[in-house]
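Technical note accompanying the year-one report. For the benefit of new consortium partners, we illustrate the data format agreed upon in the data management plan: each record pairs a sequence with a structure-token string. No post-processing was applied to the example shown here.
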Amino acid sequence: MASEALRRALVDTCDPDPRPLPDRVVDLLCQVDAPPRLAAHLRLVHDVAFRIVGWVEREYPALEFDRDAVLFGAATHDIGKAVHRDELLGPGHAHELGGYELLYDSGVDAELARFACTHGTWAEPGLPVEDLLVCLADKVWKGARLPQLEDRIMDALEAAASPGAERWEAFLRFDEMLGDLAAEADLRLAFQARHPVGVPQS
């Protein structure tokens, strides 16, 4: 049974009015009565991922990637904090495996549940572009810019660019898009802070 505070976090339209989470994710959050602040956070990262994916599709239509997987991954990346609630306010990695297990045990395919584990591992070699895009959304939502992560994504974009395209021109467009997203970080942080963390569960 979802609390009233969780329901408010899922439908809050205050600025920046992040788009709703997928119904499947809403159902999962309600089933575990997730902390309202977690729901607000997932909405914000999902919204940023939606905007990043839209930009990639417009600028690099030849890039083959799973758009729906990126959006689901962004919407669920921290869902393990519904179990490991102490990590809502402090450091920790238990929520990563915990999130994977929560999703998998709820019938989510391992290929989609993986983002709960990979959203903090952008530096590992061999990550698919989908995972890198989820990592990017999870950074830029709060205004954080990681040049090494952005370079890895640029490498993937460059591979799908038109022949003769200049990397520096592409990077400028990419940088501008991320800068616009990062400029709204204060609004997102204020939106998230409006929703309570909730009482940690032991």
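Partners are asked to follow this layout when depositing records. The CA atoms of residues 79 and 160 lie 32 Å apart.
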